[in-house]
Structure formats: C-alpha cells, structure tokens
Design goal:
The chain is an alpha+beta fold. Helix content is 10%, strand content 23%. The chain has helices at residues 42-50, 74-79, and strands spanning 2-13, 16-27, 59-64, 67-68, 144-145. A five-stranded antiparallel sheet has the order 4-3-1-2-5, with helices on one face.
Length: 148
Amino acid sequence: MSLLTLDHVSLSLDDKPILHDLSIDFWKGHVHAVVGPNGAGKSTLAATIMGLAGYREFDGDILFDGKSIKDQAIDERARQGITLGWQEPARFIEHVVPGQQPQPQAPQQQEPVLEIPGEREPAAKEQGPSSKPTRAPAMPPSAHFRKA
C-alpha cells in the first residue's frame, strides 16, 4: 500500500523545469532512498512534498495516505507526520539559559554518529570539531516508479 504518491508532478523554478512529470509511490513498511547527482532535483522534490514557500505551484498531485496534500500548509503536513530530515543535523556545543551569557567551553572531540563495521578509524589529524562523522554506505533506491 502506498503511503506517499506523486502523480505526474512537474515543477519549474525561474522558468527552468526541475521536476518533469514525476510519478512515484513510496510504500508503507519499506525503506526508500532518492539518489542522484547534484542538481538532479532531490532537494526540490523534498521541498515540494513538504510544501515549502516557492515550491507550492506545481502541476500534478501529491497524495499522503490516499488524500491530496497539494493545498495543505506546511503545518498541516507536519501534523500528519511529513517532515524533512537533514543529512547532518545541527550540533549544539553549549547550553544557553535565557537571561544568562553563554559560558565558553573547551572544544570537544566529535564522535562519529554511526559506526560501520570494517570502516577504518579516522587518522589522528582528522579528529576534532571540524571532522565529519562516518557515513553509511549508499543504499540502493527502492522507490517503485509507475509508468506515466
């Protein structure tokens, strides 16, 4: 059963087509990945599904649990469980209490957010606040495309 369906969605920004006649089903109980090179429209797709400003004027329809969400505001979509997840979430190093000045803290070493068996340990020079967390290997896309 489809949880999220895009039905012939097309979107242009600044007269440049970004999404063109996209039809796709995301199934309940399945893991899906949208992958592609930079500029392929992945972020545009996510912003369109979420209904962000500048991404609401599109052709086609988006269905969530069988009901159109095309005319729903962001907060209505969020109440149904639709949200955006960022590739690298914000990191908060200090705790700020309203009315108090933040106290400087010594830099803390960042731990990888995900450990992958068999991955090499980061070299000593790569560790520290600016190092990137270990990333999981890419998953093959499991989205089920429908023919137009």
